[in-house]
Amino acid sequence: xxxxxxxxxxxxxxxxxxxxxxxxxxxxxxxxxxxxxxxxxxxxxxxxxxxxxxxxxxxxxxxxxxxxxxxxxxxxxxxxxxxxxxxxxxxxxxxxxxxxxxxxxxxxxxxxxxxxxxxxxxxxxxxxxxxxxxxxxxxxxxxxxxxxxxxxxxxxxxxxxxxxxxxxxxxxxxxxxxxxxxxxxxxxxxxxxxxxxxxxxxxxxxxxxxxxxxxxxxxxxxxxxxxxxxxxxxxxxxxxxxxxxxxxxxxxxxxxxxxxxxxxxxxxxxxxxxxxxxxxxxxxxxxxxxxxxxxxxxxxxxxxxxxxxxxxxxxxxxxxxxxxxxxxxxxxxxxxxxxxxxxxxxxxxxxxxxxxxxxxxxxxxxxxxxxxxxxxxxxxxxxxxxxxxxxxxxxxxxxxxxxxxxxxxxx
Length: 411
Ligand SMILES: Nc1ncnc2c1ncn2[C@@H]1O[C@H](COP(=O)(O)OP(=O)(O)OP(=O)(O)O)[C@@H](O)[C@H]1O
Ligand SMILES: [Mg+2]
Known about the structure:
The protein is of the alpha/beta class. It has three domains: 3-32 and 221-290, Orthogonal Bundle (Helicase, Ruva Protein, domain 3); 45-215, Rossmann fold (3-Layer(aba) Sandwich); 297-410, Arc Repressor Mutant, subunit A (Orthogonal Bundle). It is built from 16 helices and eight strands. The strands form two sheets. Strands 2-3-4-1-5 form a five-stranded parallel sheet, sandwiched between helices. Strand 7 and strand 8 (383-389) form a beta hairpin. The protein is elongated. The chain starts with 8 loop residues before the first helix and ends with a helix. Magnesium ion binds next to helix 3. The site of magnesium ion (MG) has 3 residues, from helix 3.
């Protein structure tokens, strides 16, 4: 330290760089990468089995399969195909030589570019410049024959290619064996988001065989919870997270049904947690970490927090009671709500509303997506407890706004 608090520049730099590589929460950054392929998919056993059934003949020398996978954004289409190709090669090793290539048609959106990419992936030294489509396909055929391997071609986001170049290439790939002795040289997996399907793709699906069409559903909160849990287990330092905070993250991502959203929220929470580390803070993920930091001004000047402004005053009291508890705890029971509502009513010197009215308020909060509820069965399914949480708002911020609004009503 120098006079006037001036520090030697190198000292300043070193301290701000301290965070790099510190990783007190994140043990393995790769796990948070969207392109990282997990060791196994969680909660997709049914659809995995369905996909495998389309390739049941692959263990035979002449067997091949086809599948079209469609579903909403982040429903795990790409990772389903990736893990399938990885696992089937292991499963058949020693039995049949299976290779796979995946082309993302967003980056290679003409049929010419797609075939060039396939050839390049199989044989990086292959010259493709100046070759016609016919010549490229001939090269591909020769290559596969020479290697005596079965090739699974995955065309991801295939709608891009279909729109630019039509579906000719698909049929040429499916007919790749026609002028040769063997059969079953190639399998094809097409992937597209459900919402971008158009007439062309619908025709493609029927040509690929309607029974080969796998429709994937968006993830439920439970599905997202399993995915976020897997990432936390594999990527975070033990003791820096709890199953409760993972559940809250899954509930926040819930409306999207998008696995990427859940992973992104977890990663952002980890970053915020790492950022506030200075040796004195909580070194595990806390509720505030899963919310965008809100500007203090927003609480008073208006933001999406306005959704509470037209609630009846007593509903505000109930919600305030919830905010207080949910500031430090991920979820609470309806019993907790009534208890804390009693405390808040006393504080504001008002008479409590009936049990039924409180129940009605809780339903209203859920309709407005202020809270999320989950019914858990306990003791062998006889008892049922409702757990309430607030994944879309920072309870502290909502609480401040409620206190401000309540002043107008009761003070
Ligand atoms: N069942 C799962 N188990 C583990 N990780 C998953 C699962 N489903 C999805 N993921 C992960 O979530 C992220 C998004 O999945 P993926 O990229 O496969 O979605 P997608 O349906 O292909 O999305 P898009 O329509 O945007 O292409 C990836 O990082 C993926 O590894
Ligand atoms: Mg994808």
